[in-house]
Structure formats: structure tokens, C-alpha cells
Design goal:
The complex is a heterodimer of chains A (115) and B (113). With 115 residues, chain A is mainly β. Chain A is built from no helices and 11 strands. In chain A, a hairpin with a 2-residue loop joins strand 7 and strand 8. Chain A starts with a strand and ends with a strand. Chain B has 113 residues and is mostly beta strands. In chain B, strands 2, 4, 5, 9, 10 and 11 form a 6-stranded mixed sheet that branches. Chain B has a 5-stranded antiparallel sheet with strand order 1-3-8-7-6, with no helix packed on it. In chain B, strand 4 and strand 5 form a beta hairpin. Classes of the chains: A mainly beta (115), B mainly beta (113).
Amino acid sequence: DTAVSQTPKYLVTQMGNDKSIKCEQNLGHDTMYWYKQDSKKFLKIMFSYNNKELIINETVPNRFSPKSPDKAHLNLHINSLELGDSAVYFCASSQDSGAHGEKLFFGSGTQLSVL
Amino acid sequence: GENVEQHPSTLSVQEGDSAVIKCTYSDSASNYFPWYKQELGKRPQLIIDIRSNVGEKKDQRIAVTLNKTAKHFSLHITETQPEDSAVYFCAASWDTGFQKLVFGTGTRLLVSP
């Protein structure tokens, strides 16, 4: 009965390939996020959607394209994968827009390895 | 933009000792300061948070203090236990209409029995 679930858990692929990571939350939250955690464990926000609307778009290469078909789902598609894309990608959600600071619920992460 | 610095990067203590992790932030508009714990191979989980209208908050063995003037906040863990071993992240955000948490670089805490 996982609150925020993402698939796959592990993704190993070759440079130049295109891959997608899926995320779903069953908490009824309005906002979903993608965070990237690099090899040094640094957590950095990439995107945020509130009720299917993109509200945060950090300086991320346009090879990364998020899609939110509904407020319970946020997917991340990555084109032309590069070695530097290797990281753990976390999906997260929060109840509201988080305007006044609120708890993030993280998924279990997708470890992406680009060879 | 906001920048959050966190120290130390690693911290080793004996079981039963106290542990303190410190963070500084750059944007005086920041008003929400959560702490997340990430066990090895697991997801980050919120353990405590504090808002700028409060100077200190406690929850059993953990406490967070905030000094707005100096723009720093700290996590205090007392009577540490081996299960406290994890990476701890501080973060900061401000009211912008949506939440954009900026995380610190993390502190790896190792509690030895």
C-alpha cells in the first residue's frame, strides 16, 4: 500500500538511449516533484507539478521532459541519455502547493546507470 | 537564489552520545526548515521541521534550533542509537506560492555500538 511508488527501481541503459521513469501517488496530494540525487548524495529539485500544471522547472537539459497526465501521476522521460545522467531519481509529493512549507513524501527512488 | 551549507559531512559518535549537525542558509526570506533522514538505500523521510516564528522544537530525542539573525539552524540528537545511523539533510524554503526546497549537502552519521 505504498504512498508514492515509482518504477523501475533500477534502470541500466546505454548512452544515447531514451528511457522513462513512472511515478504514482495514492495520497490525494496536489503537488508532485522530481528530485535528482547524484553520487555525492546531493538532492536537487528538477521539476514540480501542481494539479497537472508545471510550476517549477529548474535548469535541467531539455532532454528531460516531465509529463503529468493527472495529479496522481508524474512521469519523467529522458532522451539521448548521457553518462552524467547516472543518478538516483526520486519522485515526491506534497499535499498542497507547499507554499508555506510542508512535508514531502518521497518514492523509493530509481537508480539510473548509463553505460 | 537560496544556498544551504551543512556541516559536518561525516560524524561518528559512540552509542549514547549526542550528535549535532549545523546548517546555514543565505536567503533571509527563508521561513521553513525541515530535516530529512535517509537510511542506506532508502528514501528520504522527514524527521522534524521548524518554521521561522519558532526558535526551538523537540520531538523525543531529536530537537531543532533556529537562529534567524545568524541564519543558521541545527539538528540535535541525544542518546544516539545505532539505528540513528543515516544521512541527514537539512533544507530551506520560502513562501513563493509553491514549495522549492533547497537541500544541504548531507551529513553521514555513524553511531557505533
